[in-house]
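Appendix B: complex inputs.
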Amino acid sequence: MSKKDFQTTIDAEVKAVPKRIAFIKRDVSAHVKSEDSEMVMTFPHLVVRGIICFQIVTIILVIISLLFDAPLGAIANPLHTEVPAKAPWYFLGLQELLHYFPPVVAGVLIPALVIISLFVMPYFQINAKAERLWESDQKKTLFVLTFVVVFLVALFSFFHAMAISIPTLFIYCLMILPYFIKSDIKFISWMRHISLTNWIMTWFVLLAFVLTVIGVFFRGPYWRWAWPWIEGIY
Amino acid sequence: MRRLYQIIISSEFWKSIFRTRNFSTNLGRSMVIFNNLFLHILPVKTKRETLHFGATMYLGFISFSLFVILTLTGIYLMLYYHPSVPQAYWDMKDLQFAVSNGVFIRNLHRWSAHAMVAAVFLHMLRVFYAGAYKTPKQFNWGMGIMLLILTLLLSYTGYLLPWDQLAYWAVSVGANMADAAPVIGPKLKFLLLGGNNIGENTLIRFYVLHCVILPLAAAGLIGVHFWRVRKDGGVTPLFRKRSEQIPDNE
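Resulting structure:
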């Protein structure tokens, strides 16, 4: 059988594809893909692992707690504003957004959109078929993708949000890499397999990470830029 | 040691509590799960491919472990805490100088809270990249998002309780964000703070949210979350062991 004679996909649509046909080549052992994979008893295998996991977590945190004391500032004083007033680290990405966009957008619209899209994401079967980004009509994909990215970057640049534009362009470059490099290097062919949903999530995670790091390490009094190795971390 | 183990296992007392004596057969091992209210939430059998570290990085277990640590240390801290201004702050000082191991327990609570936010977020990423939000797990993915939000809220409400400058101004940043919401913003802020400014009312509100409402909600959702993992057919591994990998059909 030559390589191009058939194509196999994994389809989640049971009604459309009621039966799965597997072509198993001779050099591949047959026991691989199986729904009924080998089972072991939960007790002791999983229960003991869970207990060990709990113990390791406890030990690590006890060591951290013995070494580092939790911060405690002066007593709260509404008349004396802390400079800079920083939220806990996991909200500093949001606070960084607040620096670029009006409060309605950064504090309400964007968080609400993120939460809603996380909730509804599994109900849109975009990724159910594990469709790769560069599977069909590559020219059209490139065109639409470029259009969307140009629009987004223009929008972010309007608000001088470099911290968002640059990671967006970075992800865009990674996305179009498989289109321009046709070789079969392992890395490139792995990139070709990534679906659009995974790309969007990766983009979101990168943005959250970059914004949080900037908020934690690079912002000083009145939210101006502060190099941590010169001014220290606020 | 072995004899002592035998004596304990074969005692009537052991049998009356655990109802299971024999761990050497698979039936006995199943009984351990059947007969235990808490372990009952787990399936009797687990896929071997989900056990190694790369499959889940144990992030769900880690998150739950942190939740347990936080509950225990939180109860200890409640014994020494008055949600009133300015007594709350002096209680922090008492923890520091008067209470045995007060600083240690507070550190443990604080660092575990930070760790839990990180662990829950990483757990979400692991589940996402494993594709474990797809049919039939959409609902449990939603439960997970709710738990992530609850974790953030728990952490945020706990942040105010020490009543120091850090807490006060961090919470005011968040409250101003709520203020920015269209139409309901100012009302939402009033509801959250129990007034127009952060004060005694805010402290008691955050205290009740942090110690009663949010933990109960989280515990309930965690139960549903675990149960649905079992019902939906177990964990979807992220990485497989080399020997178990499904080859690409290309």
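Chain B has a mean pLDDT of 90.
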